[in-house]
């Protein structure tokens, strides 16, 4: 049982220390690198008629 107590105490200490570091230095502000830049031309795909045939069979 003493081994598990040590594991729990070490885990709790790591959690408290990392949480304290985040509270002091962390921020919830959205960073500029988070914004996804759209590509110039999105790739176009051709539809072979599969979707129309699939949807028509469901309507019947």
Features:
2 helices; mainly alpha; single chain
Number of strands: 0
Strand content: under 5%
**Contiguous helical run count:** 2
Radius of gyration, in Å, reads 27 Å
Helix coverage percent of residues?
55-70%
Task: Tell me the major beta sheet.
Answer: none
The H/E string reads HH
Distance between the termini: 67 Å
Average pLDDT taken over every residue: 82
Describe the 3D structure.
The chain crosses the membrane at residues 6-25. The protein is mainly α and 60 residues long. Helix content is 57%, strand content 0%. The protein contains two helices and no strands. The model has no long low-confidence stretch (mean pLDDT 82).
Break the fold down into its secondary structure elements and pairings:
Blueprint: H1 2-25, H2 50-59
Keywords: Membrane, Transmembrane, Transmembrane helix
Region (Disordered): 36-60
Organism: Culex quinquefasciatus
What's this entry about, in short?
The protein is an all-alpha fold. The chain is built from 2 helices and no strands. Helix content is 57%, strand content 0%.
